[in-house]
Write the structure tokens for this entry.
Amino acid sequence: MTQRASVVDSVSQPPADAGDITGSDRIPLTSLTLEELRDLVEAMGETRYRGDQIGRWLYRRLATEFDQMSDLSAKLRRDLGQRSRLHALKIARVLDSADGVTRKLLLTGSGGVSVESVLLPRRRGMTLCLSSQAGCAMRCPFCATGLGGLRRNLSSGEIVDQYLLARRLAPGGDIGSIVFMGMGEPLANLKNVKSAVERLVSSEYCGLGARRITISTIGLRGRIRRLAEWPWRVGLAISLHAPNDELRCRLVPPSRSFGLEELMAESVYYQRKTGRRVSYEYVMLDSVNDSPDHARALRDLVAGQLCHINLIPYNSVAGTGYRGSPRAAIERFRQALELGGVPVTVRRPRGRDIAAACGQLAGEKDETAS
Ligand code: SAH
């Protein structure tokens, strides 16, 4: 199928605020907290309140240029434009899926790194699948992002920017929920993910409900417990993919030093502490993890937990050697879990034609990469 770049934000028409992302020393305003915005305008000889006004333009009115900020003086807008830019990321390209709704955003961050986000339709409006890192260091052998390794962590501004920039492209500017299921392992960049979530949730910034945010992780020692201490009750999805340690170590290499027993203990802690149902993701790989024995072992592993299993049809990634399970095998697996009393759903793949489906985000080829 064809990949067509939409005209709206194609390379030939970069957004007006893009600035020179690679190498600019102008500060991206979305990398600052409101307090820091107030400090910035105060240092420019203005009242601190101007910082709040700028915050509203950034987070509420989704300004695309300084000149739209009509409640600031022309001089302040000019001065701001000289020393800052609006966003930390710039939209390089947008790819539209043939389904007419799913869109992939290719973004560029400082140093020329590529970041990808996907807007996809869900039952209650649009969901944004966003990235926490450029690349990923976890090296899951079936995942396109894992194959390329890690470039760097994304800053909190770069994470929030994915939401702000994607809203411009969502119908009615409306994004109902966010899932951290793009590139990267969110718990390997926990500090920045936490301050991004704080801004996504806070009514002074984006004002999105914590319940509308889900963090997807392979689970790193001690970090699910840290999530459980957050003041916001975000959704937790754990990429399980195997019901025993031997197989999981092959599919999710970092689990060699963090086994299933410990992972389950942290997950149960999260369930008890937050009262929220944890979702286990299980990618269906042909003749690897999809037998009736695997289904039974999986049922036993999660028995009695406040959880739900999400079976993910595998999206092919060239060069991995993995194939997706046939539809009949997925259905058999689903039924076995259901009969065993485990709530289970099968994910509907979206955006395969633009390589925007789960695990297909790999980052654009990047000329500045060494
Ligand atoms: N690092 C996080 C977020 C990754 S992407 C995590 O592992 O949870 C979200 C999900 O997509 C993960 O469960 C991941 O294992 C899965 N995934 C990766 N590659 C895939 C592919 N090619 N097809 C289907 N799912 C895939």
